[in-house]
Amino acid sequence: MNVSDPVMTTEPAAPPPGTTAAVPTARRRQVPETAALVVVLIALGVFFSITSEFFLNYDNFVNILTAAAVTGIIAAPATMLLIAGQFDLSVGSAAAFCGAVIASLALHNDIYFSVFIAVLAGIGIGMLNGFFVTVIGINALITTLGTLAVFRGLTQVITDGQTLGIERFGWATERPLFDIPVPVFIFAGIALAFWFLSRYTVFGRSMYAIGANPVAARLNGIRSKRIIFVGFVLSGLCVAIGGLILASQLGAASPQAATGMELSVVTAVILGGASLAGGRGAITGTMLGLLIIGTLNNGLVLLNVSSFWQTVAQGALLIFAVSFDQLRIRLTSK
Amino acid sequence: MSDDGQMNEPFRLQARAIRKSFGGVEVLHGVDLEATGGSVLALLGENGAGKSTLVRILAGDHAPDSGEIVIAGESHSALDPISARALGVRMIFQELSDAPALTVAENISLGRWPGRRGVVRWKAVRERAQRALDELGVQLDPDRPVADLRIGERQAVEIARAISDRARCLILDEPTAALSAQEVERLFSAVRRLRERGTAIIYITHRLDEVVEIADRVEVLRDGNVVLEREVAGTSRADLVTAMVGREVGEVSRPEPAATDAQAQPLLAFEGAASDGAFADVDLAVRPGEVLALYGKLGSGTAEVAETAFGLRHLTAGVCRLRGDAHAPGAPHAAIAAGVGLVPADRQREGAFMVRSVAENISVPSWPRLSRRGLLRRSSEARAYRRWHGELSIRSRNDPDQLISTLSGGNQQKVVLGRWLERESDVLVLIEPTRGVDVGARMEIYREIRKLARNGMGVLVATSDYEEVVQLADRAAVMARGRVVGELGGDEITTERLTELAGG
User: Tell me: the pLDDT tens digits for A43-96?
Assistant: First the structure.
């Protein structure tokens, strides 16, 4: 029996036609996506520089960054979660809850102890979300929609619906360097940390794999549940930091603090190129998305557009970003 | 069906000199096709030969750049899905487009509800479904939800939907890819009934035995050209293969025997293994350097046995041993750590990370080894890819950042295979490794799998494709209804023996 022959004859075949035809699509990845965001950002900057005399100066840029800082701190872990196909909608109410925790504790306790407990509260909320999503197996959207309501309600219970003042907690309003307030530095540090985490660690890369194909991730030995759980915990930690910053900036814990934060976060993340289908996205994109939203809001204020219209603009921006994502999914799946 | 009674002349669909380009690349270079009522035309070709594009043009999904489509004597320069449907051309896709939550009857009437002024007449819905099912010779309760049906039954429902919508030309796109042997038989009998009542059938496949069994005429496409078009009677398999591949390929033949030591300790062994409802009394041993095929029809338990070795399923009796030690991984990550790799059956859904790069796809299970203290360098992933790119002759740009989705199916499968080489696994479990892979690439994958075994790996292949067993395996265990019913070695492995043991 002449065995090896049929096998060997197939070896020097020409590449199948499919390969050559499909090649060009691979080139246009990532690069143009981020480039498009930069273009939009510059366009907005030019537009507002022309229409408002107050836009183009250092102080205003610091204002934009300061306004974006808390959203950015929370959007960094949210980007990783969305890359893995997960959502955290509870961020706004969890931040308010952490603020309420520190305000009520600080009345009778040491401030450092109160901060410690507030951070633990944030981490605990993250663990709770992670538990329901990974162990019980509830869809993240539903889980965190539930915790959104629960912790907004608990915040109101703790504060009795009133704004609770905090004494000597103004650290977040200090400007240690270049007249830039502390939260902007924290924001930069967290963005950098998550950028590194998502690009250069097995943990971060596993997030991409889970989002790209959850079944394949499991079959390749990735312990998806554990990783997603940690993702939610990181989200809780950053939410606590955000909540503390908000409480410090206001000098008080408001039961209405960070209302609608989830909308800003999701908008920034999706505008930044993270796909609802999972497996794609980057921290750099989210940061650009955040700057676009921040610039838009800032410009609209400078142009004396009412804040009601800002809400409209933000919702429209989210739908625009998601439509863009859908178009991209449709184009790449062809 | 009553509507067809008045037809005297057989229905005829002709495509003439069809050309079509995508993104500047012409994929069909003036292709003709003719389907006649009461006849089955097999459309054969490797992946990328243009058969999908051609039938999508007939079904109105694509407009041709030039050429014409003549249906029942009327010429059209292009069709859209609605007009194609109105002219009686219907396509049944591999990916079923049914509504699983609805019943069989509802699915058959989907979008064409019988009724008046928007009020559905449920009695008519059921009657129509029953009529269509009877015509196909399929016995199904019209009130069952489609989600409860098996894949072959769901396909039958889609065909019933097409014929109840007066389909006169039915296009079936690789309809047997996911069917068990009995389901294939049922499908074939339904196709024959449709042929008798005058339906024209275009049957896309790359399985040669199906062409011989079901088709009257065969058309072979290669690289966008028709390379063969004739009656099936009098056409040999060798003619078809040569036409498809474009070069002489021998008949199904046996590989060179592996030099395995029959006394060596098995790498992977099952002893009296059972898993509830899936298989029982399974005794198997895979020695280093050999490819053991576990052959059986879908549902016979072969895939389930393979899954237990990878921690996807647990034994309820007996033991599984890895290098002599008890091996009961609780989850895939434990199996991988023990040195077992898995190539799953469904590449798109379980194997590849389609939106990620080839380098990432090849290195995922090796991340623990490639990283240091949780830190992973892209360069080490790229190095891993470059190594296997040459070794496995993966046809791509040799760019580690290339998306795996831009590779052909066979090359994607090589990347998935390469994962376990990079991981240095010593037992490889494959489930249906060449499903949806064209003939040429299939041969290469077999060669690579053989090469792995020659390097000392133990390979277990669970498959329902007997030609695959013949071409790949050193030994074969045949399963039927969850039990091993026979073992074959060396020259005993023939398609006849395999099908006979598996229960014809």
Answer: 888 888 888 888 888 888 888 888 899 999 999 999 999 999 998 999 999 999
CB contact under 8 A, B249 and A9: yes
Binary contact (B376, A20; C-beta < 8 A): no
Contact assignment for B249 to A10 by CB distance below 8 Å: yes
How many Cβ atoms are within 10 Å of A51's Cβ, its own excluded?
A: 11
Domains of chain A with CATH codes = 57-333 (1.10.3470)
Tokens of A183: 């939260």
Both B243 and B273 in a single domain? no
What digits encode the pLDDT tens for the residues B204-245? Answer: 987 777 888 889 999 998 888 898 888 888 888 778 877 876
> Domain check: are B172 and B199 in the same one?
yes
Q: If contacts are CB pairs under 8 Å, which of residues 71-110 in chain A contact chain B?
A: none
In a domain, B31, yes or no: yes
Pick from B167, B184, B206: which residue ends a domain?
B167
Q: Report the distance separating Cα B442 and Cα A259, nearest Å.
A: 57
**What global pTM score does this model have?**
0.73
Same domain, B68 and B186: yes
Q: For residue B117, what are the domain limits?
A: 100-167
Rounded distance, CA B216 to CA B232, Å?
5
Do B333 and B453 have their domain in common?
yes
Domains in chain B, number: 3
Distance (Å) from the alpha carbon of B179 to chain A's nearest alpha carbon: 22
**Chain-chain contact of B375 with A200 (C-beta, under 8 angstroms):** yes
Residue A220's identity, in one-letter code, is N
Whether B390 is covered by a domain: the verdict is yes
Q: Could you tell me if B407 lies within 8 Å of chain A, comparing CB atoms?
A: yes
